[in-house]
Amino acid sequence: MLESIPQIHSTAFPEGFIWGVATSAYQIEGAAAEDGRGASIWDTFCRLPGAIADGSNGDVACEHYRRWATDLELIASLGVNAYRFSVAWPRVQPLGEGAWNAKGMAFYDRLVDGLLERGIGAHLTLNHWDLPQALQDKGGWASRDTVHRFVEYACGVAQRLGDRVVSITTHNEPFVQSILGHESGIFAPGVRDRGVAMQAAHHLLLSHGMAVQALRTLGIRSDLGIVLNLAPIQAASGAAEDRARAHLEDGRLVRWYMDPLFKAAYPEDVLAFLGQDAPRIEHGDMAIVATPIDFLGVNYYSRAVFSASGPQDPHDSGAEITDMGWEVYPEGLTELLVRLHRDYAIPALYVTENGAAFKDQLVNGRVHDTARMRYIANHIAAVGKALHQGVPLRGFMVWSLLDNFEWASGYAKRFGIVHVDYQTQRRTLKDSALWYQNFLSSQPDKSVAPDGLRAAA
Ligand code: FCB
User: Fold this and answer.
1) β-pair type (304-307, 418-421)
2) DSSP notation for 375-437
3) How far is the CA of 416 from the centre of ligand 1 (A)?
4) In angstroms, rounded to a whole number, what is the distance separating the alpha carbons of residues 94 and 97?
5) Of 323, 129, 342, nearest in space to 232 by CA
6) Residues with Cβ < 8 Å from 112, sequence gap 6 or more?
7) pLDDT score of 5
8) Prior bond to 232 cis, omega within 30?
9) Which residues line ligand 1 (CB under 6 A)?
């Protein structure tokens, strides 16, 4: 099937382009009770009967907390110049306020130093969903107090690590945290209330802007930004009702986050749709949300097609479908990036996640994951097309380095380009990883940061 892997011209990507792999703390670290880590909302949620497909949790995961040094060797072996990871808030500040946990902080300190030693840029995310349970007990993201707790946490982490990380992302996917966490309730903390969800969304955005201001005041020189999960939302037909529904869904997924971040206002059509479920906004909030940032990270997996009655089943499209049930639609990534660049004044963009789950088989030390290899190659080609249309793209990161705990889907869905045997914790490079490694070896000069990070590197 190799002939169906596109040849990507290395000239498509400029010198200094960022090539990475991504993970998040709860999905890989394990060591949930070690060295003073506090509980997060995902520890709690995983214990609810039926919440996780296979009844699993992140207690052990990939044992990355213990295996970080060999995992760094693995990352280095790929030839990437970037690693995107997240700090587990409850590991460094177990109750989400007050005392810091020195051992937890030391872990990330070692990790960042290890990346630097290997010439790999550290891209740190502050909140990849694992809010301290102690803060959830006081209302979580639905409570305005959590905004201030997050700003303190952001400052604490940045003061310790900010001299050595290329970028700091405040939040990963506020849509997922608010809507899946508080409206549909299929993710932690499992609340089902639209009004609460929209209040949580507002507080996530507000805390993002406040944290960016606070980090700038501290003199942190890392690039600062936020990561959104975005997709083109298309109408199933030209009928007015289908188009209206697609427009509303675009409002809820894309414009609800992009408009406040880049235009300091929520979209009117979505506010009208929400009615009394619209969030309470205090005077001055919107200007804070729109505090200028250095970059926007986009996580892209697929598109969505809506008719008036709801989402279309991607299986009806005849297209290839991943193990998550998501349609493979690389052209959507070009379309999305070009649209974002057209509609908003974004200084720089990264694709911070892109990848796919497929049913892999480890046979004689090999995983012939041709479908994943093709998926990644086609999406990199789609990024190249967006670059050629003038989108200020700075980098691309594969989700994920390792097979890991895929939230409510548990361990059955494997996104890694590196296979993990959960019995032995052995890591095996899949064919997709070998392809990526080979592709990266053809890329021009891969510096650690666009302008040479900065102080430390
Ligand atoms: C994204 C998450 C990431 C991973 C991928 C598959 O929504 O940010 O942690 O689960 O989906």
Assistant:
1) unpaired
2) HHHHHHHHHHHHHHTT--EEEEEEE-SB----GGGTTSS---SEEEETTTTEEEE-HHHHHHH
3) 12
4) 8
5) 342
6) 122, 124, 161, 164, 165
7) 79
8) no
9) 24, 27, 172-173, 176, 229, 299, 353, 399, 406-407, 415
Q: Which two tokens stand for residue 196?
A: 């609460």
In ligand 1, the atom with minimum distance to the C-alpha of 24 is 9
CB atoms near residue 158 (< 10 Å): 23
CB 351 within 8 A of CB 396: yes
Structure tokens at 187: 């993710």
> What is the rounded distance in angstroms from the CA atom of residue 331 to the CA atom of residue 379?
8
> Which residue, among 128, 41, 137, has the nearest Cα to 85 in the 3D structure?
128
CA distance 448 to 344: 27
Beta strands in 315-385 (DSSP E): 349-353, 362-363, 366-367
The rounded Å distance from CA 402 to ligand 1 centre is: 12
Question: How many residues would you count in the chain?
Answer: 457
Top mutation candidate among 173, 399, 403, 413 for ligand 1, by most atoms within 8 Å of CB: 399
Do 364 and 378 meet the contact criterion of CB atoms below 8 Å apart? no
Query: Which residue lies with its CA nearest to atom 10 of ligand 1?
Result: 406
Give the tens place of pLDDT for each residue, 114-173.
999 999 999 999 999 999 999 999 999 999 999 999 999 999 999 999 999 999 999 999
pLDDT of residue 11: 67
Alpha-helical (H) ranges within 187-233 are 194-218
Q: Which amino acid is at 284?
A: G
Residues of the chain scoring pLDDT < 50: 1, 450-457
Closest ligand 1 atom number to CA of residue 407: 10
pLDDT of residue 457: 35
Domains and CATH numbers, the chain: 25-441 (3.20.20.80)
For residue 453, the model assigns a pLDDT of 44
How many angstroms separate the alpha carbon of residue 276 from the centre of ligand 1? 30
Give nearest CA residue, ligand 1 atom 5. 399
DSSP H or E run through 268: helix 268-274
Query: What pLDDT, in 10s, does the model give residues 195-253?
Result: 999 999 999 999 999 999 999 999 999 999 999 999 999 999 999 999 999 999 999 99
Atom 9 in ligand 1: residue holding the nearest Cα: 24
Q: What is the pLDDT of residue 10?
A: 58
Catalytic residue numbers, as ranges = 173, 353
Residue type, 178: S
Confidence at residue 449, expressed as pLDDT on a 0 to 100 scale: 55
Q: Residue 2 has what pLDDT?
A: 53
* Spatial contact of 414 and 57, defined as CB atoms under 8 Å apart: no
> Cβ atoms within 10 A of the Cβ of 188, count?
28
